[in-house]
Structure formats: structure tokens, C-alpha cells
Write a structure and sequence with these properties.
Elements: H1 4-17, H2 29-42, E1 46-50, H3 56-68, E2 72-77, E3 83-84, E4 89-90, H4 92-102, E5 109-113, H5 116-127, E6 131-136, H6 142-152, E7 156-165, H7 169-172, H8 176-186, H9 189-192, E8 194-199, E9 207-212, H10 224-240, E10 254-262, E11 273-276, E12 282-285, E13 291-297, E14 301-307, E15 314-320, E16 327-334
Parallel strand pairs: 1-2, 1-6, 2-5, 6-7, 10-16
Antiparallel strand pairs: 3-4, 7-9, 8-9, 10-13, 11-12, 11-14, 14-15
Helix pairs in contact: 1-3, 2-3, 6-8
Bound molecules: S-adenosylmethionine (SAM).
Length: 337
């Protein structure tokens, strides 16, 4: 039998998941579910989140806290722009507060408005040396990621965890968390003071889970080399279209070329719609040559739908994207109605 809490969770979370503004700023639902499960395993008393956007990830952490019947989450966000919830532009803090209330999480979630570096002093006494789980998903610039780490890491309890989101720059387009991880590794803090794993996620943005192993204070600064290395790779990719000089072997991205043709004549079909539900309903139309080119797929099996006017729709066509083949072609034939 499903617990009442779970029914509740699916209703509110489904609603937030489906708001026009939700993704990709909010984490992918699979990643959010992982946060929920991870929180249930860690059983924290205090979770601190930097960057809640409209509270999608927050609701997942909070749900786990509610089910374990103890624990609170403090979530900080600048709330500095409005969002489209389907009823026009709305104040983002109000949206987050609305869902906090709707899910009866008022006693579990506290939202703090402000920049993480600036509000630290206001909440220091509540979080000092008390954080069991710190989630950093705020300012993803190098400066921002280092500032958040250096400001909040000391308040994580020994044995506590940090989660960093967006660690694969070529997919998420930001490099702060990446440079932070590489700097921690190079500085010898990993594995001496911090245990660290990097994980690929369904959206390709990736997360890293770090565990604090001792009470040693850790402060890091980005080396110019780390920043410039990433910039060089970014520029290289732009110029050559080649994503191979990647820092992340666990993040191999594959270029796939889909060609949609007439099942009888093999002629390319222009304007056919390609839809991939596994990648946030990614939607593309074929060019005059019948092709859609996607350079960011992961080695996975994807079920896609292809439709075109005058043709019967092909549903759940299997794209078996293999690892280690950097470019893969798929021809999809459609039958005339
Ligand atoms: C990617 S969104 C967070 C998404 C959210 N964690 C989720 O998955 O549902 C990043 C958020 O961080 C906030 N932000 C960026 N820099 C910040 C800072 N220095 N302090 C507080 N919030 C910040 C932005 O306003 C934005 O809402």
C-alpha cells in the first residue's frame, strides 16, 4: 500500500515539475529522486541548500526529512528574477513559498532570500558546525563555486556530505564546480580530507558527492591553469566542433545523426519531428536533408518518437547509442499514410 506521504509528494512535485519555468533550471526529476533517496540514507538533521530556484530540489530533500520525521532544510536563493508559471511572470520567492505551503512543509523548509556569501552571517549561528548535508547549486561561476565552498564547508560536520551539481561543463555550460573539484584533487584534499565521487546523470550535467573525512579546515583558490585549461577546451570545441578533448572520461558525449526518410523512396523528409522523452522531451525538426544532428548524447538506449505530416508516426524507435563510437548514424523510415 502506498504511504499517504508518497501520494502527497507525487501530487505537489508533479505540479512543480510541470511548470513551464521549471526545467532545465530545476534539476531533472531523476536527479531530484536521487537527492530524496540519498537524504533518506544520510538521515540528516540539517540540510543546507544554496540555490533553490523555485524549490524543486528543496521539496525532494524536505520530503525525505518529513518521512524520517526529523530534520530541517535551510535553502538560500537570491530570488532575483521572476518566472513564468503558466499564469504570467511571478515572483520566484512567492512561487517557492506557495509550494512550501501547499506541501505542508512550512515547519521543515526555511527559505532565505539573498546571496549566499552575504547571508552567511545572518544564519551562521543556526548552521555553525551543524550541516549534515550541504547542496551547492547556486552561482556556478568559478568565483561563485569557490566562495560557496570556502564559506560553508567548515560548517559541514565530519562524516557529513556535500553535493555539487553541474560538474560537466561541456553539457551544462558552466565550469565553477568542475574547477573546484579539480582544485580539491590537485591540492591533495581529495582523498586526504574529502572523499569524492563523480556521477553522470541522465541530463548529462553530472553531480559530485563529497564526504568530509576530518575536521581539517579546507580553503581553496582556483589556479589560473585550471580555469584557462577549461577555456581552451571550450574554444577548441567551438572552433573544431570536436568534443574529444574532454576532461571527463565518465562524460563521453556522442554525436548522433538521425536521418528520416520516406520508407518507399528513401528520400529525405524535411520537417519531420524528432522527440526524445528521455532527454526532457527534446524536440527537433529535420532539415532539408532529412537530418537532425545532436552532439550531446550519452551512451544509452533512447526510445524516440518520429512524426511527419502525411506519414504514420513511429513511436518508441530505439536509438541504441553505443559507448566509444564518437559519431553514430541512425536512419528512420516512415511509411506514408
Ligand atoms: C540551477 S538553479 C537551482 C535549481 C534548484 N537547485 C533545483 O534543482 O530545483 C540556481 C539558483 O541559484 C541562485 N543563485 C545563483 N547565485 C546565487 C548566490 N550567490 N546566492 C544565492 N542564490 C544564488 C539562482 O537565483 C538560481 O535560482
Amino acid at each position: 500500500m502506498q504511504e499517504p506521504d508518497n501520494i502527497y509528494r507525487s501530487e505537489v512535485i508533479k505540479e512543480v515539475d510541470q511548470l513551464p519555468c521549471s526545467h532545465p533550471a530545476s534539476v531533472n526529476i531523476d536527479v531530484a529522486n536521487l537527492y530524496y533517496s540519498f537524504t533518506k540514507m544520510v538521515r540528516p538533521l540539517l540540510v543546507v541548500e544554496i540555490g533553490c530556484f523555485i524549490g524543486f530540489s528543496t521539496l525532494h530533500f524536505a520530503q525525505a526529512l518529513r518521512e524520517q520525521t526529523f530534520g530541517k532544510i535551510i535553502s538560500i536563493d537570491a530570488f532575483d528574477w521572476d518566472v513564468d508559471t503558466g499564469n504570467g511572470e511571478q515572483n520566484r520567492q512567492e512561487v517557492a513559498e506557495y509550494y512550501r505551503k501547499k506541501s505542508n512543509m512550512e515547519d521543515i523548509i526555511t527559505y532565505i532570500k539573498g546571496y549566499s556569501g552575504q547571508v552567511y552571517s545572518d544564519i551562521a549561528k543556526d548552521i555553525e558546525k551543524k550541516i549534515d548535508l550541504l547542496y551547492i547549486d547556486g552561482d556556478h561561476s568559478v568565483k561563485g563555486a569557490f566562495e560557496d565552498f570556502n564559506t560553508y564547508y567548515n560548517d559541514v560536520r565530519v562524516g557529513g556530505y556535500l553535493i555539487l551539481h553541474d560538474i560537466f561543463p561541456s553539457m551544462c555550460g558552466v565550469n565553477g564546480p568542475r574547477v573546484l573539484i579539480d582544485t580539491l584533487k590537485k591540492s591533495g584534499n581529495v582523498p586526504k580530507n574529502l572523499d569524492l565521487i563523480e556521477m553522470q546523470t541522465r541530463d548529462g550535467f553530472g553531480i559530485s558527492i563529497l564526504r568530509k573525512l576530518n575536521s581539517k579546515s579546507v580553503k581553496v583558490t582556483p589556479a589560473i591553469d585550471d580555469v584557462s585549461e577549461l577555456l581552451v577546451k571550450k574554444v577548441w570545441r567551438k572552433i573544431t566542433g570536436d568534443s574529444s578533448p574532454s576532461l571527463m572520461t565518465s562524460n563521453q558525449q556522442i554525436k548522433i545523426i538521425i536521418e528520416v526518410v520516406d520508407g518507399e523512396t528513401n528520400k529525405p523528409i524535411e520537417g519531420a519531428e524528432f522527440l526524445c522523452p528521455q532527454r526532457w522531451n527534446e524536440q527537433r525538426l529535420t532539415e532539408a536533408n532529412g537530418q537532425v544532428v545532436l552532439d550531446h548524447y550519452l551512451p544509452n538506449r533512447y526510445q524516440v518518437n518520429i512524426s511527419a505530416p502525411g506519414y504514420s508516426t513511429k513511436e518508441d524507435f530505439l536509438l541504441d547509442v553505443k559507448a566509444e563510437i564518437t559519431e553514430q548514424n541512425f536512419i528512420i523510415k516512415l511509411d506514408k499514410i
